[in-house]
Amino acid sequence: MKRVISIQSKVSLTAILAMPLVLLSACTSRQPNSTATTKVQAGASGAARNGSPDIDLNCVMQHIQSPPESFHYTFKDESDNPWQEDAEVTPQSVSGTFMNNSLPNPQAFQSPPQQSGSNLMGIGRMASIFSTIHMTSAVVNQGAEQKNGYSAVKYSIDTSRADATEQRLFNTIFGPGGFVKGTVWTSSDGCPVQIFLDEELHAKDGSVQGKAHYQEAMVKQ
């Protein structure tokens, strides 16, 4: 169902996520960890309509590779192609572990922040989700809230509240009855400091084709 991303790849997440959004719209089927542009605008009730920053997945990698402060970072993808990352990030170094379907045992690493991208690239798995739901009513601004030591904006995400036009798009991407639901908190510059997100993909007959549960966190130290 999902493409396996080799952890040895030296392609930076920034380069991957710079792919034009038009590539996504040209696809007739979607894979949960496919990549696309990730600086996305929230929906009609979300960031773009309320003067808030965009939900910017690239910002997470920028914080890891050029940390403005120390924080604990985690990412988890629970699916048929699992991925997990855990790291202590400081302006001087990044140390932690990662594991995936090909490397089921924790792989330890330590490196300068600028060289940590090849070990902490899992957040790119959510790129196509956010590229699909941006500027739709699936994303709703819930207001300001403190989260993980940050002054944050809370967004609820639920593709079931989409209008008829958006539902046709979501049915094409996620399949009939497929959905994305969850909650995202972003810092003042749009970095997701907490994500809880569930995705379910359906076949054309409505049967479940794949599930994924995503978690991400940046906890200020």
Your description of this structure?
This protein has helices at 13-17, 21-25, 47-50, 57-65, 127-133, 164-174, and strands at residues 39-40, 55-56, 71-78, 83-89, 94-100, 107-111, 139-147, 150-158, 179-186, 192-202, 208-220. The protein is of the alpha+beta class and 221 residues long. It has one domain. A 9-stranded antiparallel sheet has the order 6-5-4-3-11-10-9-8-7, with helices on one face. Strand 4 (83-89) and strand 5 form a beta hairpin.
DSSP summary, beta strand count: 11
**Percent helix among the residues?**
10-25%
Number of domains: 1
Query: H/E element string?
Result: HHEHEHEEEEHEEHEEE
Radius of gyration: 17 Å
The first-to-last residue Cα distance is 37 Å
Strand order of the largest sheet: 6-5-4-3-11-10-9-8-7
Overall average pLDDT? 81
Low-confidence stretches: 1-52
Largest sheet: 9 strands, antiparallel
Structural key phrases:
nine-stranded antiparallel β-sheet, two-stranded antiparallel sheet, 6 helices, globular
Secondary structure: elements and pairs:
Layout: H1 13-17, H2 21-25, E1 39-40, H3 47-50, E2 55-56, H4 57-65, E3 71-78, E4 83-89, E5 94-100, E6 107-111, H5 127-133, E7 139-147, E8 150-158, H6 164-174, E9 179-186, E10 192-202, E11 208-220
Antiparallel strand pairs: 1-2, 3-4, 3-11, 4-5, 5-6, 7-8, 8-9, 9-10, 10-11
Summarize the structure.
By secondary structure, this protein is an alpha+beta fold.
